[in-house]
Amino acid sequence: MSRKIKFRAWNIKTKTMIDLHKITPLALSESMNSQLALQGMDGLFIPFHENLILEQFTGLHDWWEGDIFKHSGSIYVIEYKDGAFRFKTKQNTYLDLTKWTPLPEKIGNIHENPELLK
Questions:
Q1: Residues 51-100 pLDDT 10s
Q2: Domain positions in the chain
Q3: Backbone φ, ψ for residue 71 (5° rounding)
Q4: 1-57 adopts what CATH topology?
Q5: Structurally, what CATH architecture does the domain formed by 59-118 represent?
């Protein structure tokens, strides 16, 4: 089973979320990754800049690092921890993303809605 590897970035200066495919179309293209594979390399070329906070797609639904969720009156944030994406609780414990019934409600992200964490 494979999942799409996608990134988005929060621009600290403009306070906007950036679709990296729009600003680096060649760097994230399949042909670029094919060329890397031919050279014995893999990975994505992503622009690192002090004004950008990179966040990765979890592979589930439309869930990304930094997204905030509500479930049964509790608030959770998605973080990458110990080799997996997990829900972080206010008590700094981590829970599996995949074992929720019903699914938690996505209510924002840590950049655009930091007040939800209070």
A1: 888 888 888 888 999 999 999 889 999 999 888 899 999 899 999 888 78
A2: 1-57, 59-118
A3: -150, 125
A4: Dna Ligase; domain 1 (3.30.1490)
A5: Roll (2.30)
What gap in Å lies between CA 68 and CA 57, rounded to an integer? 14
Tokens of 44: 């994505």
DSSP 3-state of 55: strand
Q: How many CA atoms lie within 13 A of 84 on its CB side?
A: 9
Length of the chain counted residue by residue = 118
Task: Tell me what pLDDT residue 75 has.
Answer: 94
Q: Which residues on neighbouring strands pair with residue 75, listed in sequence order?
A: 70
Position of tokens 């060329």? 35
pTM tops 0.90, yes or no: no
